[in-house]
Design goal:
Blueprint lengths: L9 E4 L10 H5 L1 H4 L3 H22 L5 H15 L5 H12 L7 H10 L3 E6 L3 H11 L7 E4 L10 H11 L6 E5 L2 H10 L2 E5 L15 E3 L5 H4 L3
Parallel strand pairs: 1-2, 1-4, 2-3, 4-5, 5-6
């Protein structure tokens, strides 16, 4: 039997890949992309994340929307795709990515159980607001924290500190969920109680920080918290 995570006051979620499906834009453009849809989605996501890390190290912050566009441009160029209309279509869809099917019900269960709920994301406020509204989950979130207010990306510790300060909850009483193995590890290293939502069957990272639990979708979260 899996041990429950106790003494939690707040549940904080990464957004992209955890609540919202980062592959949805390419999947919805498969009519134009054909067999390049999956390679594009993978390369776009990889470059998007790599550019956040590189920009943080270079101290050259720009908001996530630009990083997302830069990552897409790299992916399109790598796959030999030159299509301005398709690029615009992909970016428009990324602004309102589909939420995973269990997200709204899980957040509702957590709220009804008396827990604070929030997003902690690299996403810019405009992107997060659009995705949250599209998913219809604004009523079950207490807050949404964007790195845009501090000008540096995950996994810098100051990002995770935003949730502690914003929710007025100690790090050890925050349960943090991310589908990104590196984000889950970094959040655990910071001091959060971490549940790694390993949607993509990733291996564990070889960096400091150990998630407390591993699940494959958020559907298993309420029972872990005794709800």
């Amino acid at each position: 039997m899996t041990a429950k995570i106790e003494d939690i006051d707040a549940c904080v979620f990464d957004a992209y890949g955890t609540l919202f499906d980062v592959a949805a834009a390419a999947a919805r453009c498969k009519d134009a992309l054909g067999d390049k849809a999956e390679p594009l989605a993978a390369l776009w996501r990889t470059r998007q994340l790599e550019y956040t890390w590189l920009r943080s190290l270079m101290q050259e912050y720009v908001e996530f929307w630009q990083v997302t566009g830069d990552g897409l441009d790299y992916a399109l160029a790598s796959l030999g795709i030159e299509d301005d209309v398709l690029r615009e279509r992909l970016m428009d869809i990324y602004m309102v990515l589909d939420a995973y099917p269990e997200v709204k019900e899980v957040l509702t269960t957590l709220k009804n159980g008396g827990l604070k709920t929030a997003i902690l994301s690299n996403g810019s406020p405009k992107m997060l607001n659009a995705a949250v509204q599209n998913a219809g989950i604004d009523g079950v979130l207490d807050d949404s924290f964007s790195v845009d207010s501090i000008g540096i990306y995950k996994p810098h510790p100051s990002v995770y500190q935003m949730a502690v300060d914003g929710l007025d909850v100690d790090a050890g009483r925050i349960c943090f969920m991310s589908s990104n193995a590196w984000d889950a590890a970094a959040a655990a290293n910071f001091g959060f109680r971490v549940v790694w939502v390993n949607r993509f069957g990733q291996p564990q990272e070889r960096i400091p920080g150990q998630p407390e639990q591993e699940i494959t979708t958020l559907e298993a979260l309420p029972s872990l918290l005794g709800l």
